[in-house]
Amino acid sequence: MNNRPFSSQTSIIHSHGIDGKTGAVSTPVHHTTTFHQQDFDKYGPYDYTRSGNPTRQTLEEIIAELEGGIKGFAFASGMAAISTSFLLLSSGDHVVVSEEVYGGTYRMITEVLTKFGIEYSFVNMQDLNEVACAIKSNTKVIYMETPSNPLLNITDIEGVVKLAKANHCLTFLDNTFMTPLLQRPLCLGVDVVLHSATKFLAGHSDVLAGLAVTGNEEIARKLTFLQNSFGAVLGVQDCWLLLRGLKTLHVRLKESSESAYKIARFLESRNEVEEVFYPGLRSHLGHEIQVRQAEGPGAVLSFRLRSEEDVRQFIKTVKIPVFAVSLGAVESILSYPCRMSHSSMPKKEREKRGITDGLLRLSVGLENTEDLINDIEQGLLKIKSNSQKDVINL
Ligand SMILES: *Cc1c(COP(=O)(O)O)cnc(C)c1O
Fold first, then answer.
1. Which residues pair with 303 in a beta bridge?
2. How many domains does the chain have?
3. Ligand 1 mean position to 175 CA, how many Å?
4. pLDDT digit of tens for each residue in the chain (394 aa)?
5. Is 336 a domain residue?
6. 335 and 284 Cβ atoms separated by less than 8 Å
7. 60: helix, coil or strand?
8. Which of 51, 92, 187, 261 suits 317 as a labelling partner, its CA being 20 to 30 A distant?
9. Which domain range does residue 385 map to?
10. Residue 21 catalytic?
11. Does 267 share its domain with 292?
């Protein structure tokens, strides 16, 4: 008997289990809110769908297994997962947060948690000294997001975990950009892993979902209580869509990452492009840490053109990527951070963080790589011909 555990690639397909009653290979969608009880002395495993549903439980067990945790939780969105996890905090507590955190998380921390007396400090998480200096006697959580959005900056996860443990704080990590196939933060000592499953995990731009996983019994008990109390659970139909998306995560991520690497190399070779940000490039600041702590660089990259006008030409010319917010889908998605995800940030703050008017983010999908590169090349050539015209006009 072979007792070796299966790789994630295998378990992601087979952990769904086969329905004991019917033999159905696809997880049944239990469209029920309540469950008949045999008697009032002893309840069955389910009573009401907010507290537990077999379809949702299948999903929660799979994400827990993939992340190497003991319990998973499915929520109505990534923000619902993140916000519910913040309810582990109490009035008077303090959180240290990466300054490049997702916009919705930034809003939750600065405009909602503050109403409940929870304080925060934003730090540059690439600098462990800054993290150490921000920790106060009431710091309860250090919140990471790596790679960060949109510049793909890398945080040394084990470095932060070490500081947190020394100061008796918990660590949360938003693993949306990596997925558990590329990065398993719980194995590096993180307490709670969070996902916008809307992105790579579901993968088809058709379902909004969030997940949380922990490897700690006490946190698992508290999150079970909070998930049921706050009630932002994922509906069963969406659980099924996410289970379906997960089955192909491995091939989607592999293909998109390989494409992303080729595109990043191509962009690096072009003089219309000032800078390329992708953890798979040796030139990337966090490359070495990324190689140490993750299985790959992922499928999101960003690059800097010279000006807003260059961006305008480029976007008007490229035909394949959809021009939109979001990421992690079968279709490539091109977004313009300074007018999309970071539009509410004052220009000065944005530029301080490197989010200039020339910066574009590309989430690479499953289109043919050559097609994508040719399309991008057309966009860049258009910039060139226009800037040459400017020169002639002068
Ligand atoms: C999209 C996103 C979120 C928020 O998730 P929703 O599913 O949109 O609520 C959180 N973190 C990151 C890194 C994201 O990309």
1. 276, 360
2. 2
3. 10
4. 456 678 888 888 888 778 888 999 999 999 999 999 999 999 999 999 999 999 999 999 999 999 999 999 999 999 999 999 999 999 999 999 999 999 899 999 999 999 999 999 999 999 999 999 999 999 999 999 999 999 999 999 999 999 999 999 999 999 999 999 999 999 999 999 999 999 999 999 999 999 999 999 999 999 999 999 999 999 999 999 999 999 999 999 999 999 999 999 999 999 999 999 999 999 999 999 999 999 999 999 999 999 999 999 999 999 999 999 999 999 999 999 999 988 877 888 789 889 999 999 999 999 999 999 999 999 999 997 766 655 555 4
5. yes
6. no
7. helix
8. 261
9. 251-393
10. no
11. yes
Q: Residue type for 142, please?
A: I
Going 293 to 186 to 256 to 327, the CA torsion angle's sign is negative
Catalytic residue list contains 262: no
- Type of residue at 247: K
Tokens of 259: 């494409």
Q: In one letter, which amino acid is 251?
A: V
Question: Does 219 share its domain with 260?
Answer: no
For residue 98, give the nearest of 155, 158, 178 by alpha carbon: 155
Q: How far is the CA of 145 from the centre of ligand 1 (A)?
A: 11
Same domain, 290 and 212: no
CA dihedral 111, 116, 118, 122 (to 10 degrees): 0
CATH number reported for the structural domain that contains residue 371 in this entry:
3.90.1150.10
For residue 104 and ligand 1, the question of a CB distance below 6 A is answered with: yes
Q: Are 8 and 181 in contact (CB under 8 A)?
A: yes
